[in-house]
């Protein structure tokens, strides 16, 4: 089953108005959900998860370089200002993966 960004983020309780305004991005098919930036591929969604030894926010640029079209983050200030993909800011990115 293939899902696009609009469908994926509509599953979350947060309202995602910004995505619905960008219809091209919203209709983009998602290839992979990942929390390890080394595994990000074009059209993937990267979840920046805070761990005991590492903070996924440190690897946002790596995920973007590998083609992530969307990011799920707790701290949007860690996203490069020139990033053109979609950013969903949530209180707990680990919980979003459950």
Can you describe what's shown?
The chain has 98 residues and is an alpha/beta fold. The protein has 5 helices and 4 strands; from the N terminus they run αααββαββα. The protein has helices spanning 5-10, 17-21, 23-26, 60-65, 93-97; strands spanning 32-34, 44-47, 70-73, 86-89. It is globular and about 35 Å long.
In which order are the strands of the major sheet placed?
1-2-3-4
Q: Which range best describes the helical content: under 10%, 10-25%, 25-40%, 40-55%, 55-70% or over 70%? A: 25-40%
Which range does the strand content fall in?
A: 15-25%
Count of alpha and pi helical runs: 5
* Alpha carbon gyration radius: 12 Å
Q: Describe the main β-sheet briefly.
A: 4 strands, parallel
Q: Low-confidence parts, pLDDT < 50 over ≥5 residues?
A: none
Briefly, what is this?
27% of the residues lie in helices and 15% in strands.
Comma- or semicolon-separated keywords:
98 residues, 5 helices, alpha/beta, 4 strands, four-stranded parallel beta sheet, 15% strand
What's the arrangement of secondary structure elements?
Layout: H1 5-10, H2 17-21, H3 23-26, E1 32-34, E2 44-47, H4 60-65, E3 70-73, E4 86-89, H5 93-97
Parallel strand pairs: 1-2, 2-3, 3-4
